[in-house]
Amino acid sequence: MQKSMDKAAQAMLQVAEEQNIKTVWDRYQAQLPQCGFGETGLCCRHCLQGPCRIDPFGEGPQVGTCGANADVMVARGLGRAIAAGTASHSGHAKHLVHTLHKWVHHEAPDYPIEDEGKLRALANRLGVSEKDKPVPQVAAEVAELALQEYSERLTPSLWLEKFITPGRKALYEKMGVMLYGIDSSVAEMMHRTTYGVDQDPLNIILGGIKCALGDYVGMHIGTDLSDIIFGTPKVTATRANMGALKKDAVNIAVHGHNPVLSDIVARVAKEMNDEARAAGAPAGVNIVGICCTGNEVMMRHGVPLVANAVSQELPILTGVMDAIVADYQCIMPGMADISESFHTKLITTMSIAKTTKATHIQFEESTAKESAKQIIRLGIEAFKKRDPAKINIPKVETQGLAGFSTEQIVAALGLLNKEDPLKPLIDNIVNGNIQGVALFAGCNTVKITQDYNYMTMAKELAKNNVLLLATGCAAACFAREGMLNSDAANEYAGPGLKAVLTAVGKAAGLNGPLPFILHMGSCVDNTRAADVAVAVANKLGVDIDKLPVVASAPEEVTEKAVSIGTWAVALGLPTHVGVVPPVTGSPAVVKILTETAKAVFGGYFIPEPDPVKAANALFGAIKERRKGLGLSN
Ligand code: NFS
Ligand code: SF4
To answer: If 0-12 CB within 10 Å is exposed, 13-18 middle and 19+ buried, where does residue 393 land?
Structure first.
């Protein structure tokens, strides 16, 4: 199997081979064959009488020591994955809440409040009267409400109630999955899946849905507060891939997730150009992005994203990656080993995410700018230690647009209809120019040729006039592969879709159509797409499960992707996964996820490793929903 479709990644993998440097692909090879019990979800370590395994072929034991059967083991494993994902997204968001709270108390003086309008709009939506109150007071009240979302509430989650459709709210209450607190939903999942508690797979999965709604709320808070503090993304011309690394600059990558770190580094870098020049780098400091925080700074500052997820180690092999600054999540431990073979300085910054082989600079909001400068200085020092013989920058660099926040999508549509911006979108869905909308999210995995599923599915769906939204590593993939521009729209979009994109592009003063894939942000920004769906559903007076909107994580890896997929299902979306999670050991659980979920929530999982079949399945789901709405075209 080819490792990656990305031309720059291919070039660097060649270098890895020549220099006998082991990457994630080699480590994966060394793991093969992977354990069949683990792959199917049929092992359990939830107590010390284990580990227990169930024989999927029916010959060995069919229950664990305590009597847990395959259905219980698989459902419990899935539940815990959702809890881990929820804890991660909401932990990231909690960090932003603390930053806002510190800002109010003058303990985070270096942070801006870029979008007062969004702060006030959010306050209003949450029922806080903001009129005549100064920004710090409104911020304090919003931060307080956000913190309250975490612990056990006596009333349903405010964020969930205020942002979903009335139909969903009623359904969640009826099904007993209404969220009363993010952290409490995680704790409850840990409780119900521990030794001898929940033993009904359907009940465990309903608990998983409740916890996944905690993920949705955590992500929503993350996006809201990032926008308030750092600015709501605006459509930005940007570049991507490893060709954006510069031989004559100090190249520093921000890697991880939270703009609390990366946004400040991107801002402060502008002040450090002279120091870099003095060190012999005429082009100054060149900040680039890796993974989701790369998307954050790409949207807000046009910082080029050079790699993501499975290819995160490869920029080091260019020999010009002077420093990598990491916060948390999706940072492979293997990064530390590879950076040791080069001059690259790996810098960790968060107390919960250290690695023995990296330099740790504790990043505090109170001294954010100073810490950022200290970090950049380490990059400048490392630059001096470059080995010219090892320099090898692949000449692959793409152009595209990023930064399609919900607000920007509404603004773009407003160019066609100022009074009623959603109308052009709805009209074009009704007349069939746009058959439906597909949200692409998730990671890149070593188990699939990098980008292959994304690219294949995107082309298939676009041909059928499906508008694509992308976040996280999906958005990063499309950026690296040069899909976020007018040329790609001209090449791949079907005639109806192209006509709409051209009309909007023209109204926006572009030289061609809008991209057929709208880069909506990082992984936590998936709720931006949900907000668009909710707005359209509310306007039409139907629930989300009636809309021709689908989701896909074609190359997913993380537990976070499992939580997102689960709330997408709970929102009512047919949701494709290209890597089948460890659930196949329980046909009962598979049936709950793919069939029962559809009957109850309207949304359901479509596990399908083949990208063409997956695109057909999603388009089929879109067609089914169009028919349900009485749209025969
Ligand atoms: Ni989200 Fe995937 Fe990580 Fe971001 Fe990428 S791996 S689940 S997209 S970087 S979180
Ligand atoms: Fe085995 Fe049951 Fe313990 Fe799991 S909880 S390890 S199945 S005894």
So the answer is: buried
